[in-house]
Design goal:
Order of helices and strands: HHHHHHHHHHHHHHHHHHHHHHHHHHHHH
CATH class of one domain: Mainly Alpha
CATH architecture of one domain: Up-down Bundle
Mean pLDDT: 82
Number of helices: 29
Largest sheet: none
Shape: flat
Radius of gyration: 56 Å
Low-confidence stretches: none
Structural class: mainly alpha
Length: 738
């Protein structure tokens, strides 16, 4: 039954119609009574507020005249106060304006008084300074008066101003005349301190451009005079065809004079004329170098007749010259005389590069922006002097290439073997020449020159010299082994006797490869010291990178020769190897025990190898000897593998083979410092397969069960090895899954 409290009055009739029991009627009655009591309580609460509401209504009806009167009185008082304050502020403001105007007038008057006094003081100071020849003070006061002239106005006394201007103009003209005369006098006497003094006086006299040109002209004149004196002495020496003509010294003196002039006066130039003044002076000094330096280099080319010399050298290189060391080669110019010129050119180039770097650093310091610095640098390097230097460097490259080729040819032609040496003289001589010429080219300081010479050196080493070394390796194996004594007589040979020429040729090839590597490392370290720029170092390294391939080519030459010796040497092992073919690897237990005690073929093979190596080891450099042992082991293992592949085995035979292989590995490892065990890997694994008890036992070593073993045989080859066992049935082998 719904509650009456949840419905409105319109629903009451509906609720009454729904009452069907006495309990519902009683419950609804109680709800109605409770609702009635709640309404009564709310009415009592509202009626209790009646008195307060009536009092509020009464207060609203009271008159507001008294309040309005009070507000009017307060407003009038506020108006009177504001009006009096405004009048007072207006009076104060007018007084402040009058005071400010008076203050400005006073300051203006004081400024004019100070201006008049300063101008008068300047005039008086100039007069006194001129009388006492204190030109610095006079010039400074003239400059100060010029600045005060700008501040002057029309209110000053025109007569006084005109008189002051006349006095100052006369003093300035007189001072300018004195400064110019004193400057010329100091220049004529080469009194540098006085020149600097009167150069500084140009600035306060508003003669900045004239002062810069005068001082720069003085420096250029001084340098030109000294250069002319040195050139005169040089010309006399050249005219007498004297060997004392010191072109390097004359050029060095020129560079030193210019560098000192730029360095010692840089602060003066920047202080008086700014960075632009320093830049102007550096460019003018370089112009002097273009004139005097080019004249020295041109005279050098004429005196040494380098153009004619280069034509003769170039004419002798037609591409069809006989090989290095050939008696048919014709030397058109003595290389020793060429070397004298090369040393001179290196010194000239080295000094020029050092001078260029110094002057370019001054240019970069004075240039206002990087773009301007780059433009000036390009103009600097494109000047007459640097163009002449590049011409000289071009002659140097041609002469250096000729010198290297002729000296290497001479080293090959005069090749000899000194007592107690394993390498002939041509290797040491050739690489001494290469190192000297390469270092000399780097010492020029010219990147292009260094790269050109280094490339040509590599061409000579990898071409003509490699051909000379390789030509001596022809049939070296036959020549070496044909002269080898019989096995029985080897023990009687003297190990200290002169090595065979074929062995020396192989030593030359191997040593040349090592020397090429050392040469590259040495030149890289030298370039690191001489070329500070990282990009220049990378260019040098790029040129030297080809030497790595050249070194490998020489090692390959020696390797092929040693491989041919090992192949020919295999014929001396035919006897022991034939014994292997005749050895029974299907022994009984008694035969197996007897074979263990005898070890016939392995012992004979080791004795033959040892006796032959005893003969060859004193003749070979360590690298060649070790390489020969490795090549020989490779040949022997390949031959043994072929022999064993044709034999039949039982398990005891497989165990005997394993014992024989271990014996060979143990003894041959003592002959060399290089590892030879890996050369026996296939034979060792063959012995392992042939010594198994059953075919299925191979699965313990194969595939996932191989562990650390790296198999050198594939599955088909292992199956063929198992077929060599006479005691393994074909059915068991066919059932084997590898």
């Amino acid at each position: 039954m719904p509650s009456i409290l949840e419905h409105g009055a319109t629903d009451l009739s509906d609720i009454c119609r729904q009452l069907t029991t006495l309990g519902d009627i009683n419950r609804l009655l109680h709800e109605v009574v409770a609702r009635e009591r709640s309404i009564d309580a709310e009415l009592e609460q509202q009626l209790s507020k009646r008195k307060d509401v009536e009092d509020s209504l009464m207060s609203l009806s009271t008159s507001t005249d008294e309040v309005l009167d009070l507000m009017r009185i307060d407003a009038e008082q506020l108006h009177n106060s504001v009006s009096s304050t405004a009048q007072l502020a207006e009076k104060v403001s007018s007084k402040v304006r009058e005071l400010d105007t008076a203050s400005n007038n006073v300051r203006e008057v004081l400024s004019r008084i100070n201006l008049v006094m300063d101008r008068s003081n300047c005039i008086e100071t100039v007069k006194l300074a001129m009388e006492s020849e204190d030109y610095e003070t006079a010039a400074q006061n003239i400059a100060t008066y010029s600045q005060l002239r700008i501040k002057a106005d029309q209110s000053m006394d025109e007569v006084q101003v005109r008189d002051q201007e006349a006095v100052l103009k006369n003093a300035q003209q007189e001072l300018v005349k004195i400064v110019r005369e004193k400057f010329r006098e100091a220049v004529s006497k080469r009194d540098h301190a006085s020149v600097v003094r009167f150069t500084k006086l140009h600035v306060p006299l508003a003669l900045t451009s004239e002062g810069l040109e005068a001082f720069t002209g003085y420096l250029c004149q001084l340098i030109a005079m000294r250069a002319a004196e040195d050139y005169s002495v040089l010309a006399d020496a050249v005219g007498q065809n004297s060997a004392s003509a010191d072109f390097v010294g004359v050029l060095t003196n020129l560079f030193k004079d210019i560098a000192i002039a730029a360095d010692d006066n840089s602060e003066l130039l920047k202080e008086c004329f700014g960075p632009e003044g320093l830049l102007h002076t550096v460019l003018q000094l370089q112009a002097q170098c273009d004139t005097a330096g080019s004249r020295v280099l041109t005279r050098y080319l004429e005196h040494r007749q380098l153009q004619r010399l280069v034509r003769e050298v170039s004419g002798s290189k037609r591409g069809t010259d006989p090989p290095l060391g050939s008696p048919d080669r014709v030397t058109v110019v003595d290389p020793r005389q060429v070397e004298v010129y090369l040393e001179e050119i290196v010194m000239l180039s080295q000094r020029s590069e050092e001078y260029n770097e110094f002057m370019l650093s001054r240019l970069r310091e004075a240039a206002a922006d990087p773009v301007g610095a780059a433009s000036h640098e390009n103009a600097f390097r494109g000047g007459q002097f640097n163009c002449t230097v590049r011409e000289v460097i071009g002659y140097y490259i041609t002469l250096e290439e000729y010198y290297v080729e002729e000296m290497v040819s001479k080293a090959v032609r005069l090749d000899e073997l000194a007592d107690g040496q394993l390498v002939s003289s041509m290797v040491d001589d050739t690489f001494f020449i290469m190192q000297k010429c390469a270092r000399r080219s780097l010492a020029t300081g010219s990147l292009q020159c260094s790269c050109a010479v280094l490339t040509e050196l590599n061409n000579i080493i990898s071409g003509a010299f490699r051909s000379a070394v390789g030509g001596r390796l022809s049939n070296c194996a036959q020549r070496l082994l044909s002269d080898m004594p019989a096995e029985a007589a080897i023990a009687d040979t003297d190990p200290s006797e002169r090595p065979h020429e074929a062995a020396v040729s192989m030593n030359c090839a191997e040593t040349s490869g090592s020397y090429v590597t050392k040469l590259r490392q040495d030149l890289e370290s030298v370039a690191l010291e001489l070329f500070p720029a990282s990009q220049d170092r990378e260019r040098i390294k790029s040129c030297l990178a080809d030497l790595a391939k050249t070194s490998s080519d020489f090692h390959n030459l020696a390797g092929r020769a040693l491989d041919s010796v090992a192949a020919a040497f295999l014929n001396r092992l035919r006897g022991p190897l034939d014994e292997v073919a005749q050895t029974n690897y299907q022994p009984s237990e008694a035969e197996y025990s007897a074979m263990e005690a005898e070890e016939l073929w392995t012992q004979r093979l080791l004795v033959t190898v040892e006796s032959s190596l005893y003969y060859l080891s004193p003749m070979l450099v360590p690298a060649n000897y070790d390489a020969l042992v490795v090549h020989l082991v490779e040949k022997v293992t390949a031959r043994l593998e072929a022999i064993f592949a044709k034999k039949r085995f039982n398990q005891l035979g497989g165990l005997q083979l394993d014992r024989d292989i271990r014996n060979l590995v143990s003894h041959l490892s003592e002959f060399t410092n290089r590892a030879v065990r890996d050369k026996f890997a296939r034979l060792t694994q063959m012995a392992t397969v042939l010594s198994l008890e059953t075919p299925n036992e191979i699965l313990d070593y194969w595939g996932d069960n191989s562990g650390p073993i790296t198999w050198r045989w594939n599955a088909a080859e292992v199956r063929r090895l198992l077929e060599l066992r006479v005691d393994f049935s074909q059915a068991s082998l066919n059932a084997l899954r590898l």
